[in-house]
Amino acid sequence: MGAESGSVRIGVIGGGQLARMMVPPAIHLGLRISVLAETEGSSAARAADAVGDYRDPDTVYAFADTVDVVTFDHEHVPNEILLELERRGVAVHPRPEALQFAQDKILMRQKLEELGVPVPSWAAVSDEGELQAFLDAHGGRAVVKTARGGYDGKGVRVISDAGEARDWFATLAEDGRGGQLLAEELVDFTRELSQLVARRPSGDARTWPVVETIQRDGVCAEVLAPAPVADPATLARAAEIGETVAEGVGVTGVLAVEMFETRDGRVLVNELAMRPHNSGHFSIEGSVTSQFEQHLRAVADLPLGDTAMTASAAVMVNVLGGPAEGPMPVRYAAALAAHPRAKFHSYDKQPRPGRKVGHVTVTGEDLDTVRAEALAAARAFD
Amino acid sequence: MGAESGSVRIGVIGGGQLARMMVPPAIHLGLRISVLAETEGSSAARAADAVGDYRDPDTVYAFADTVDVVTFDHEHVPNEILLELERRGVAVHPRPEALQFAQDKILMRQKLEELGVPVPSWAAVSDEGELQAFLDAHGGRAVVKTARGGYDGKGVRVISDAGEARDWFATLAEDGRGGQLLAEELVDFTRELSQLVARRPSGDARTWPVVETIQRDGVCAEVLAPAPVADPATLARAAEIGETVAEGVGVTGVLAVEMFETRDGRVLVNELAMRPHNSGHFSIEGSVTSQFEQHLRAVADLPLGDTAMTASAAVMVNVLGGPAEGPMPVRYAAALAAHPRAKFHSYDKQPRPGRKVGHVTVTGEDLDTVRAEALAAARAFD
């Protein structure tokens, strides 16, 4: 709690909005935060003490020398670099042996099966023949995903013919590392859920209420917290899955487990993210302890905070793309004026169509009212 | 809402905890914030783009050149410098003609009387003879205050003989500017209240619920929000006084009006502060829009946010002084572990006995429960 008294110095690799939103709780908790940003214009650039390429070992090692703990805005730092950091005695959270399951979807599926966690039917496929066999066995349609590097709907295709993944197989062949694609059954889901969990190195963990996420065009559009209850048993199962995964993969920091709720009442894990996640942005206002504060507490090995809701309902709506017309500040003022209860979060990013440039959260007692207000406030930027 | 789109650049003069706590909402709103800090080790140093003396005109002019709006962490910037900034076309909020009433207690008392706002019986006294006359007319005891530079109980004495202010008269005489001291009746108050108001340059204003402040040794120790209702008419009068003063002095940004509630049911104004104030720290978690966010909105001339409470009650307790024994981080972890619902705010300051080094806020439905939790969490640092 002070410079003189050994405040923990946290280094965040990646300068996007997740790093940006870690800065406010770091200020309040009295933790020192530094960011290794990709470019001078990054979302978290104001907290950046270093600008450089996270794929360059020496850049990362030099940055790590200035902090006590290294954590992440994204999962793209090569595992070899992180393992070397650990060999050099740097605390890395999440640890590379956990992070690999968020970096490689095939490893993730294998691990989840090993943990007995329900997942969609899947196979790792090495060529078009194997993919076509999977398609034939699953009614002629399937989802195919690149194992590494996908994000926000990129690297995901719904296909009905193996030839539709030919370019990806070609890229893998060029890569020469014998990579595979992940083929999955096309799940007949009624909605998507997300379970956030934070876990300390000691294993102590806390969950937030399960939320419902609403995607549009493969990108998270809205989050309803807590998820409106359909079957309480389903929500309890989602929470249990989140805890099992957090423990099973040994994550430290925040883990997001994205799940499908199927028409026949099952809950299947779709994706994992080992960092604060879009489905947890509601928690800045909606929870006693936000995912960003909790992530910092967890990676600094400080006791975790309470995750209760601060109101009956919180709805987060992403603001996408740039202004269609007129200067942004004018629209910003109009949005603030029309929605005094809405909490606006700008990522200070160059607007491009479809890019997340901010979000809006509204909290209150009635979900429908709160949701209508949040949607209207976000729409002020369309 | 973005670098490219003309984000307002706000410059804060003064690097204390108030500037520090403006940084989180600036990040969320997408406003650029810079701080002119006194020293490298200031509380808000992590946001500081400049370090220098706010009494040096050229330092302030150079800082102002880098921002769109100048605002303050404290009221000590000489008025001549601020008037010159305005002559140079810089937006200064609060404006120097408003700020003078927070800089000089005699000007403040004159203005409040002119506005018809109830104040304790007072006089500006030039020497011991005038002070003794005031004492004699007020039962032989009074409060004497330096007109300028007092803060947190400094520059305030309760006296029963004019000789007790001899050193202050001597200092004023050396100063050669013909200054006076402020003599005031010793108010028989039952409690202290504070009304926060935020006002835009256009005059649009919002108030928060009136709070009760509890002082110990002349320093704010606790804030109960909203003030437990004794007589609703009293609270309504306090709110009305706040609005009258904000409008009457033409403040822009946040104004705190500290008041006495007297045994005979009157509400008298004690002090004014034209900046976010200790009595408003509860609003970070306790209000839809915190005083820090609202101050930024007001000085950037953006629409003001809703000031409703987020829970029935919020209690803030200051953390004073340094650790009596043992390293702070150890105590910090223990405090977080014991109080998962408490929100801890560290100012990253060198602890010294009696110095405010942080605060704790708890929100909830029952005031007594919330207060007990906040006191216990703050006491973990004693």
TrEMBL record, chains A, B:
UniProt-listed PROSITE patterns: ATP_GRASP
Purpose: Catalyzes the ATP-dependent conversion of 5-aminoimidazole ribonucleotide (AIR) and HCO(3)(-) to N5-carboxyaminoimidazole ribonucleotide (N5-CAIR).
Gene3D superfamilies to which the protein is assigned, alphabetical: 3.40.50.20, ATP-grasp fold, A domain, ATP-grasp fold, B domain
InterPro entries with a match to the protein in the record: ATP-grasp (IPR011761), ATP-grasp_carboxylate-amine (IPR003135), ATP_grasp_subdomain_1 (IPR013815), PreATP-grasp_dom_sf (IPR016185), PurK (IPR005875), PurK_C (IPR040686), PurT/PurK_preATP-grasp (IPR054350), Rudment_hybrid_motif (IPR011054)
Biological pathway: Purine metabolism; IMP biosynthesis via de novo pathway; 5-amino-1-(5-phospho-D-ribosyl)imidazole-4-carboxylate from 5-amino-1-(5-phospho-D-ribosyl)imidazole (N5-CAIR route): step 1/2
Taxonomic lineage of the native organism: Bacteria, Bacillati, Actinomycetota, Actinomycetes, Micrococcales
Every ATP-grasp domain range: 109-300
Protein name in UniProt: N5-carboxyaminoimidazole ribonucleotide synthase
Pfam families the record matches: ATP-grasp, PurK_C, RS_preATP-grasp-like
Catalysed reaction equations from the record: 5-amino-1-(5-phospho-beta-D-ribosyl)imidazole + hydrogencarbonate + ATP = 5-carboxyamino-1-(5-phospho-D-ribosyl)imidazole + ADP + phosphate + 2 H(+)
Protein source organism: Leucobacter rhizosphaerae
